[in-house]
Design goal:
- Helix content is 32%, strand content 25%.
- The protein has 130 residues and is α+β, with helices and mostly antiparallel strands.
- The strands form two sheets. Strands 3-4-5 form a three-stranded antiparallel beta sheet, covered by helices on one side.
- The chain is globular and about 50 Å long.
- The mean pLDDT is 81.
């Protein structure tokens, strides 16, 4: 299943040629990344305008228990905004690094060609992308 924007980007029209192949796992990973990168907006007087997104992880604290609370909120966001991921669960994995001792991995399954497929996505760190 493709979301609306994915269908618009991947459409096939006579003038456009063939649509690129749709990669469900990549689309789900991109949606999870959007959830993490977007910030929910709370308007004046505490009015919640947009619930989509996550607060910065550094706002939650620095301990593993703080990170686990962040992970539970992220899991709730994934369940709500990424219904194509079946049975999502989170795992904090030790990295062995002093400045980033843990990384977050999202597990679950997806359905491709009527078969369940294992899904695993490690949230990238901005340091890893450069």
């Amino acid at each position: 299943m493709q979301f609306l924007m994915e269908r618009l980007v991947n459409r096939t029209e006579p003038d456009m040629g063939l649509a690129p192949p749709f990669d469900l796992a990549a689309a789900i990973a991109a949606q999870i990344q959007r959830i993490v990168e977007c910030r929910p907006y709370i308007g004046p007087g505490g009015a919640r305008v947009c619930e989509f997104g996550m607060p910065p992880i550094v706002d939650t604290g620095i301990g593993l228990s703080d990170h686990e609370r962040y992970g539970q909120r992220l899991l709730a966001g994934i369940v709500r905004y990424e219904p194509r991921l079946i049975g999502p669960r989170l795992e904090w994995v030790a990295t062995g690094r002093a400045l980033r001792p843990h990384t977050l991995v999202i597990h679950g399954s997806i359905i491709e060609e009527d078969e369940p497929v294992v899904f695993r996505f490690e949230l990238p760190c901005p340091d890893d992308m450069s």
